[in-house]
Amino acid sequence: MQHITQYGPGDYSIVPMASVIDPRYDAESTASRDDRIQVIAAHYWDRNIGDPVRADRLHEAISEVLGCMDEAEIGELGQMASNGPDFLGAWLIAKATDWLQAECVERARADVDREDSQIMAEAVVARMGY
């Protein structure tokens, strides 16, 4: 006969961790997670963007940066343009590179979240004895 445990409202195994005072919080695990995200983001960068940055990805990033600008950034863009094309190009490339790095980190974070969810689901299934 299989025993199925009924989990209740006070059971830490089914409640998401809410803060650092949670007894399940592990600072080393959190640091490890951040390290995993950075490693995966670096892999995405190497595989999809390259060094030097591929022209098609740079074009896409510059288009995104220009499309998402607010008034202050448009003023900054005008200031860079008045300083000359070299300043404008360097400024746009820096903004585009930041955007590409953020995209890599976002994709890596989604992968780590998906991996962690799968590990937790497998642990629940194992705990239930299936």
How would you describe this structure to a colleague?
It is built from 4 helices and no strands. By secondary structure, it is mainly alpha-helical. The chain has one domain (27-128). The chain is elongated and about 70 Å long. The relative contact order is 0.13. The mean pLDDT is 80.
Helices and strands in order, then pairings?
Layout: H1 27-49, H2 55-67, H3 71-83, H4 85-128
Helix pairs in contact: 1-4, 2-4, 3-4
- What structural class results from the helix and strand content? mainly alpha
- Radius of gyration computed on alpha carbons: 22 Å
**Gap from first CA to last CA:** 13 Å
Largest sheet: number of strands, sense, barrel closure: none
Helical stretch tally: 4
Count of distinct structural domains: 1
Low-confidence stretches: none
In short:
This protein has one domain. Helix content is 72%, strand content 0%. It is built from 4 helices and no strands.
Descriptive labels:
130 residues; mainly alpha; 4 helices
